[in-house]
Amino acid sequence: MSKEEQLALVEKGEWLPLMEEFYTIQGEGFYKGTAAYFIRVGGCDVGCHWCDVKESWNADLHPPTAVSTIVENAASYSDTIVITGGEPLSWNMNPITKALKEKGLKIHIETSGAYELSGEWDWICLSPKKMKLPTEEVYKKANELKVIIYNQHDFKFAEEQAAQVSEDCILYMQPEWSKRDKMIPEIVEYVMKNPRWKVSLQTHKYLNIP
Hints:
Elements: H1 3-12, E1 15-25, E2 35-41, E3 64-66, H2 67-75, E4 80-84, H3 94-102, E5 106-111, E6 123-126, H4 136-141, E7 144-149, H5 153-162, E8 170-175, H6 180-193, E9 197-199, H7 203-206
Parallel strand pairs: 2-4, 4-5, 5-6, 6-7, 7-8, 8-9
Antiparallel strand pairs: 1-2, 1-3
């Protein structure tokens, strides 16, 4: 198959630029501590300066892989699949979620919400970024809002984002890893004063797992 044919399949979402896939314990948010199979899709132009997977940004670095292959691998490990990135909504998620649903699997997405929502999801973790805000649809459908706290201004940003999601959406503040020693005490204090928020930590990093 030519490169042009592969790229055409990627544009349709029938193939995806696959950075990595792995079975591990979910480290963040509502499902922390539970087993899940992660599919990390390459490609992101949101450009967070503190991103800890910058190697995911350039989709051209990651091999176009057939959705059917990705789904077969995922189904052999777990009944809960997490699609992350990069920014997975850069691509058409309808083919992969349809195929995963046909296997009877539960499908979660971790997204900045910066692009149109595609795919069928059991759980949407929305982690908005200032550089490219979420679409209205993603705000309304998010099951959890996870705001990364890097500095003091991020508390204001968090409240602005919380005002956009539904009343049922679970609200999390998570310290940016390199600032955790400084920001964790401030987050704890904030959540104690504003208990509708919860603290999320990157527990997989404390556990030294992917």
